[in-house]
Write a structure and sequence with these properties.
GO terms for molecular function: phosphatase activity. Keywords: Hydrolase. Residues 290-335 form the GCN5-related N-acetyltransferase-like domain. The protein folds into three domains: 18-62 and 204-275, HAD superfamily/HAD-like (Rossmann fold); 91-198, 3-Layer(aba) Sandwich (Rossmann fold), CATH 3.40.50.1000; 282-365, no CATH class. The chain contains twelve helices and 21 strands. The protein has helices spanning 18-21, 43-52, 68-76, 90-101, 114-122, 148-159, 183-191, 207-216, 228-238, 252-257, 310-326, 359-365; strands at 24-28, 34-35, 38-39, 56-61, 87-89, 107-111, 126-128, 137-140, 163-166, 172-175, 178-181, 199-200, 221-225, 242-245, 266-268, 282-284, 287-290, 293-298, 301-306, 330-332, 346-348. The strands form six sheets. The protein has a six-stranded parallel sheet. α4 (90-101) crosses α5. 48% of the residues are buried.
Length: 369
């Protein structure tokens, strides 16, 4: 059962190191701890330091292709002290949803790989590979071996009444060679042949993070991720604080364009932020100050002055942009020819996300893209 929570405001201050404020870090994997098979530089060292300070490290992934034990082995190869119980996958979250709906040993059709099979067995369900087994549910998750036959069989079972679950809807998945189609792309293939939408377990939907909080015993969790539309949006959806790191998919331009439900509590270059305090942003007369930097929006562009840490500058820039985007529309005077005719003033539209120029400001603080 979920607990009522409220995420802190974006760009909040933290007057102690994050590893001291929170008891469990919920880390996304792709783009945060590793990219493809390789670790993100310094990620393992920063996580080991945080663990020594008493922060429990949990590894949370939308990728359902591998069982938790295999993910743990991969992470251990980087020198991290990690076991299977430290890992929570979207396959486990999906299996938990199915187990809450159907009796033990119910047949469930797997459109995916070993990660799904292992998770279903963990929750006492019976994985099957054919719609001829009359499955009560279909669970779909990414695996590189998913083929047309599996997709077609999943569609047949759903059309025959099986309940459909998807581990996640990520359209892409990062690989060592670049972006590739993710589970969301494969879900779309089945959706074209059925008349229902799947129940989704992974981020930004709440089941994966709720399952992770429960399994890891988190009382003061912190979500850490690189993707605004899954990691950060998911944290906001369950009402927990989030840390965005710049080692993965999204960048400063994406942050500036982020809608309210995708804005993080904290922003940082990487996992070294766990050992650091987080400065807030003060606002006075349209000027947004963080550290030695002050930013404001002038003529639809960010002007920034000062000096200091680049990410203090980024926080000031983001605060200025978000305030401009969120500002309510203001009335403007009618043209002179309409003056005195009793007509209502025209509304001045608020700034559109992405319409405010930030390149010069990013260059000024030393964060060129």
């Amino acid at each position: 059962m979920s607990t009522e929570r409220t995420a802190p405001a974006p760009l909040s201050a933290c007057d102690e190191p994050l590893a001291a404020r929170y008891d469990v870090a919920l880390l996304d994997l792709d783009g945060v701890v590793y990219v493809g098979p390789d670790p993100v530089p310094d990620a393992a060292e920063n996580l080991r330091k945080a663990a020594k300070e008493g922060l429990r490290i949990g590894y949370i992934t939308n990728n359902a292709s591998r069982p938790a034990r295999v993910v743990a082995e991969h992470l251990a190869s980087f020198g991290l002290d990690v076991i299977a119980d430290d890992v929570v996958t979207s396959a486990q979250a999906a299996a938990k949803l199915v187990a809450a709906e159907f009796p033990q040993r119910s047949p469930v059709l797997v459109v995916g790989g070993e990660g799904l099979t292992s998770a279903l067995e963990e929750y006492g369900l019976k994985p099957v590979r054919s719609s001829d087994s009359h499955p009560v549910a279909v669970v779909q998750g990414f695996h590189p071996d998913v083929n047309w036959v599996m997709l077609a069989d999943g569609a047949h079972a759903i059309n025959e009444g099986a309940k459909w679950y998807a581990t996640n809807l990520d359209l892409t998945i990062p690989t060592a060679a670049g972006m590739a189609p993710g589970n969301g792309t494969l879900v779309q293939a089945i959706r074209a042949a059925v008349d229902v939408d799947p129940i989704v377990a992974g981020k930004p939907e709440t089941p994966l993070l709720e399952t992770s909080i429960e399994r890891l015993g988190a009382e003061r969790p912190l979500m850490i991720g690189d993707r605004l539309d899954s990691d950060i949006e998911g944290a906001n959806a369950v009402g927990i604080p989030s840390l965005w790191v710049a080692t993965g998919v999204h960048d400063a331009h994406d942050l500036a364009r982020a809608p309210k439900h995708q804005r993080p509590t904290y922003v940082a270059a990487g996992l070294g932020a766990l050992a650091e305090k987080q400065p807030g942003v003060t606002v006075e007369r349209g000027r947004h100050t963080c550290g030695g930097w002050t930013a404001e929006v002038v003529n639809n562009a960010v002007s920034v002055k000062g000096e200091g840490e680049p990410y203090d500058g980024l926080r000031a820039i983001l605060s200025a942009v978000w305030a401009a985007v969120d500002a309510p529309a203001k009335p403007v005077a009618k043209a002179a020819k309409n003056a005195g005719r009793g007509r209502r003033p025209l509304p001045r539209p608020a700034a559109e996300p992405g319409s405010i120029a930030i390149d010069a400001a990013l260059h000024r603080v030393g964060l060129d893209s």
